[in-house]
Specification:
Layout lengths: L14 H59 L4 H5 L8 H4 L10 E3 L3 E6 L14 E3 L2 E3 L3 E7 L2 E8 L7 E7 L12 E2 L4 E7 L19 E9 L5 E3 L3 E2 L5 E8 L8 E7 L8 E6 L16
Antiparallel strand pairs: 1-15, 2-6, 3-4, 5-14, 6-13, 7-11, 7-12, 7-15, 8-14, 9-10, 9-13
Length: about 300
């Protein structure tokens, strides 16, 4: 007896049953996808704004660095170089009734530099007396005065103390001793012009750039023969407190090639000799300083 295989379809749920069965699953999946998308979107926003913030901060830092570098390479202004605290605040009030005489001050230049008369840029350089020792190279506190028909000398004095504003420049030869040799070379026909320079900025031996050039000559203070013995001095001139006096020593045009002055000076040497300024007392100025940080 033969039998025939028959296909029997499995029972199938209606579409309404499928909708009821699968709708919660689809809803949960959609909610999960929405939560994940929202989290990714929030993270992307944070990353985006963080990147923008870092870029802006980097740009500002670069601009500030470039600005600071440009300022450091530019010549400082006169106000930046000359602003110092005033150590004499209200000293005029304290000393107004003082009658005690104030002794003079012998003020030696801290900076002495040379320049070539043919150099129109007036670039300055320093001569030194360095010497080798077992402990290394030593630079003594000597300053060279060299004035010829080819070389001039610039010397700067820091005006010392308070109400000592009447000055004269003194020129003499340093004394030779057993412990100090100034290496004097002097022509007897040397006539020196003493110029006051238009300069109030503090100089230094390691000057560079625009400050390494001597300022223009402002006033011819004196024309004096350099004495082989004794001392010669200029007329009085004003040397304001808390300022600098810068002078230039040159051979007088009429002296020609016979003008030659060359020696080394030590401000600690005794007896005193060389090129230096004598400061004398002046009347106490009343209410001359108001701001402790005012510029010169």
């Amino acid at each position: 007896m033969s039998s025939t295989a028959e296909y029997t379809a499995l029972p199938r749920k209606s579409s309404s049953d499928e909708h009821v069965l699968y709708e919660p699953l689809l809803k949960n999946e959609a909610e999960s996808s929405t939560r994940h998308y929202g989290a990714r979107t929030g993270a992307n926003h944070v990353l985006f704004w963080s990147t923008i913030g870092v870029a802006l901060t980097t740009t500002v830092s670069l601009l500030l660095s470039i600005f600071a570098l440009a300022r450091s390479h530019s010549a400082p202004s006169m106000a930046q170089l000359s602003r110092r605290p005033n150590p004499y605040v209200y000293l005029d009030t304290v000393l107004i009734n003082t009658t005690r005489p104030i002794p003079s001050i012998n003020n030696f230049p801290q900076v002495v530099l040379q320049l070539l008369n043919t150099d129109h840029s007036r670039r300055m350089h320093e001569s030194d007396r360095e010497r080798a020792t077992p402990f290394g190279t030593v630079y003594p506190d000597d300053r060279r005065i060299l004035v010829t028909d080819k070389v001039s000398t610039v010397a700067q004095f820091r005006n010392l103390d308070y109400a000592m504003e009447s000055c004269v420049l003194v020129m003499s030869l340093p004394a030779v001793s057993a412990t100090y040799d100034p290496k004097i070379s002097l022509s007897p026909d040397s006539v020196i012009d003493v110029w006051i320079l238009d300069e109030s900025v503090e100089l230094a031996q390691d000057i560079r750039g625009p400050l390494g050039r001597a300022a223009a000559r402002r006033e011819l203070l004196a024309t004096l023969p350099f004495p082989a013995s004794g001392a010669a001095q200029t007329k009085e001139f004003l040397c304001p407190s808390r300022a600098f006096t810068t002078i230039e020593l040159t051979c007088s045009p009429g002296a020609g090639s016979s003008c030659h002055v060359d020696f080394w000076q030590d401000r600690r040497g005794k007896p005193i000799g060389g090129v230096y300024v004598v400061q004398n007392s002046t009347p106490i100025p009343r209410k001359s300083f108001k701001d402790p940080w005012e510029s010169w």
